[in-house]
Design a protein that fits this description.
Elements: E1 2-3, E2 10-15, H1 25-40, E3 45-51, H2 57-61, E4 66-69, H3 88-96, E5 100-103, H4 110-127, E6 133-137, E7 149-152, E8 167-169, H5 183-188, E9 204-209, H6 218-229, E10 233-239, H7 246-255, E11 259-263, H8 268-273, E12 277-281, H9 285-292, E13 296-300, H10 303-316, E14 319-323, H11 328-344, H12 346-356, H13 364-373
Parallel strand pairs: 2-3, 2-5, 3-4, 5-6, 6-7, 7-8, 9-10, 9-12, 10-11, 12-13, 13-14
Antiparallel strand pairs: 1-4
Helix pairs in contact: 1-13, 3-4
């Protein structure tokens, strides 16, 4: 077990991983929460990440965030807790005495949280400390876990039948990155005429995103179709760090001068803010686009994305092009049809952007930080 040097006395543990199989979403959400804790915590509490292997270490080290590497298999977390206070997690609890722990992972089950709870209770009894609060960041289903609180930031989460006593549900809790925290104020203070001033040239810019590793190579298919059909528009295809199709996308960009491959983007806020339209899978990127008021066309290719796409369509009138797995051609046709409407009518784009801004204010990371630390957040 490796750990970096602790800076403060009180700690919040963040359990997440990032790799080419699961993407970076879990880790980036937790990084946003960690940044919110550090910004508003008055140096009283520090976030400490708990990761399975070194694949996540570089991401945290370059951001100067503290972490502990367990050198375990991210797919099997039970060895972390099954030996109680003598387990790796038991040692962490005794070393750090965390005030709370947030778990953000799909590779968990009820017995893992039962183990965490027992460790927390045992360590509290042994060391005479308050018991660590256990929280789970869920965005898939309704888990029957033993928790002190459940957090689900999705737009539809308020309708889900969670049994946990403390429930923090809805898009007010979406933990977006730092760049999005002050965007709402700037937009609210801008003039209506400023809504459409996104880039300095006369071209219409469109972002294409699938999120994660894009195993189905959807960005390539959409990018090729749109760049060919609209040579007067500029298409920004987002290619994540773990996208295995980067070389194919780069070759596509060589064939189409109006297509740009945006690889491992460090400032998604700037990229999205520069675009007039977005074509995005129904994931966390949708909430970023909502904060910025970018007219968006969505689609989905995973079961956990369906509810997001349907809720955005129902609540904001956004175009839900459908399930890419079922009929990709129909999805592509719907995307192109709505794109035509947006491309040719500035007023339609402006109205669509204004409608989705009501989804979230982008400050969910501070709300989660407040839940984990028990401290009032002043940046809301």
């Amino acid at each position: 077990m490796e750990k970096s040097k602790s800076k403060f006395n009180k700690t919040v543990l963040l359990r997440a991983d990032a790799n080419d199989a699961i993407g970076m979403g879990h880790m980036m959400r937790c990084i946003s929460v960690a940044r919110a804790i550090l910004r508003d915590g008055n140096n009283k509490i520090t976030p400490v990440f708990v990761i399975s292997d070194e694949r996540s270490a570089g991401l945290l080290a370059e951001r100067e965030l503290e972490f502990v590497c367990l050198h375990t298999d991210y797919r099997d977390k039970m060895p972390e807790v099954e030996d109680g206070v003598d387990s790796p997690m038991g040692q962490l609890f005794r070393n750090y005495h965390p005030v709370s722990m947030l778990v953000d992972s799909y590779q968990v089950e009820a017995s893992y949280f039962t183990g965490l709870r027992r460790i927390a209770e045992a360590v509290a009894a042994l060391d005479g400390m308050a018991r660590t609060g256990i929280f789970y960041l869920d965005d898939v289903d309704v888990p029957d876990y033993e928790l002190d609180g459940i957090i689900n930031y999705n737009i539809y989460a308020g309708d889900l039948p969670y049994r946990q006593e403390k429930r923090f549900l809805g898009s007010a809790y979406i933990p977006l990155g730092e760049k999005f925290w002050d965007v709402k104020k700037r937009i609210n203070n801008s003039t209506p005429e400023g809504d459409e001033i996104r880039n300095s040239d006369n071209s219409l810019h469109c972002m294409i995103s699938s999120g994660g590793a894009d195993m189905l190579n959807i960005c390539y298919t959409i990018g090729e179709r749109m760049a060919s059909a609209y040579p007067d528009c500029v298409f920004h295809v987002v290619c994540g760090k773990y996208n295995a199709h980067r070389s194919e996308l780069l070759r596509l960009a060589e064939q189409h001068t109006n297509l740009c491959v945006e690889y491992d983007v460090r400032d998604m806020c700037a990229l999205e803010q520069n675009c007039d339209i977005a074509i995005s899978a129904a994931g966390s990127t949708m909430y970023e686009l909502a904060v910025l008021g970018v007219p968006t066309i969505t689609y989905f290719f995973a079961d956990n994305q369906r509810l997001v796409a349907e809720a955005f369509a129902g609540q904001t009138g956004m175009c839900n092009a459908g399930d890419y797995r079922v009929d990709s051609q129909a999805v592509l046709e719907r995307i192109q049809q709505r794109f035509e409407e947006y491309k040719d009518n500035t007023l339609i784009r402006m109205n669509a952007g204004r409608r989705i801004r009501h989804v979230t204010d982008g400050l969910g990371a501070f709300r989660i930080a407040g839940i984990l630390t028990g401290m009032e957040q002043t940046n809301l």
